[in-house]
Each structure stands twice: as structure tokens, then as C-alpha cells.
Amino acid sequence: MKSVILREKKEEYHVGKILCVGRNYAEHAKELGNDVPSFPIIFIKPASCIIYSGENVEYPPYSQELHHEIELVLLIGKTIRKGSIDEAEDAIIGYGVGLDMTLRDLQNEYRKEGNPWTLAKCFDTSAVLSDFVMKDSVPDILEQEITLSVNGQMRQQCLLNMMIFKPAEIVSYLSERMTLEPGDLIFTGTPKGVSALQRGDELQGKIGSLLSLNTTVA
Ligand code: MG
To answer: What is the CATH number of the domain that holds 32?
Structure first.
């Protein structure tokens, strides 16, 4: 069973489901040749995908195109069903930074045939997580910059307020359709700059000076 640590409370949350938003930054939608969506595009990862900062991402031998996607991750702290924006805001207890690792070649192949892209997103080690900070300790999360560097070179860099659907909107939207529970995680989408990785690459993801993670591609 996978869990995350909420730093200030030293409290551990067992991870339930991991919901992920696709194409939540206009420039990223464009770089992959997609339209900007009018509603959140949602997919899911199992908790078994999770590794933590300091552990290695395993490049699966059946893919030739492993991409990094750095994202703000929300930790749900209370059960919410059909929640308003205010209730959704209240249900978010923590923030982390995470990598939604993606097998882009498989994803493109599946999409072309109209098939689900599950296996492009759900391989072991495809969700890399930092620890989490209390939401209440960060009044200005959307004013923070999210960054991802590979071998010391900046590849992704964007203010979080460039998100199309903001955290409470995403949580409210999801809670209309499924119950969210304590320990559920939400990956909120990645800004532009996704790119292919090689074995041996060293990745560092950050949100301002609040959150950071490190991983190496093995
Ligand atoms: Mg993503």
C-alpha cells in the first residue's frame, strides 16, 4: 500500500485513487497537436505506479519514447461528493509536486486507434511524488512557478496560474461524478516543454522553494 506524508502534520495518508487531468495548459495542448478542451480530460493511475523522490524511474523496454510531465498534485483530506467550489477548496488538504511519466509512443498509437491509453500511463514507477505541504500554509499556490530540469537544463517552466481548470474547479467537477476520499491524489496537468528522456537522465522538479523531487531514469 502506498502513502504520502503531509509534512507539517507528520501525518500519513494511504493513497486511494490517482486522478489525472490531461491538457490543462493551453500551450501544452498545442505542442501535442490537440485542441484546448472545454471540460477537464480525466484519466486514472493506480497507486501501484507510485515511487518517491530519490527512487528511479524504470524505462520500460517496450517503449522508445518516455516523456516527463511535471505537475502540481492535490491531496484530498476529506470525503466529498457533488461538492461546490467552496466545498472542493475545503476538501484539498495538501499540495505536492509530481511527475506523470508517459510512454508517448504508446499513447499516440492507442489514441490513433481510439483505444484507451491506460498502459501508456500506468506502468510501475510512472508516478513520482515529493512529500506534501499543508494547503493552508501556502496562500498563493497559483502564483508559484513549476519547473522541471533534466541534467541541470530547464525543460518545463510555468506559473501555475496558467492552468485552464484551477484546483477547486477540478475537484468540484470530479466530485459530481465520483466520490473523492481522503488520500486520493489529483495530478493537475503539465505545462509545455514535455520531451523524451534517455536512460541515465537526472530529473529535478520543483514548485517554487516549497516542494521538490529528484529521480533518475534507469
Ligand atoms: Mg499529465
So the answer is: 3.90.850.10
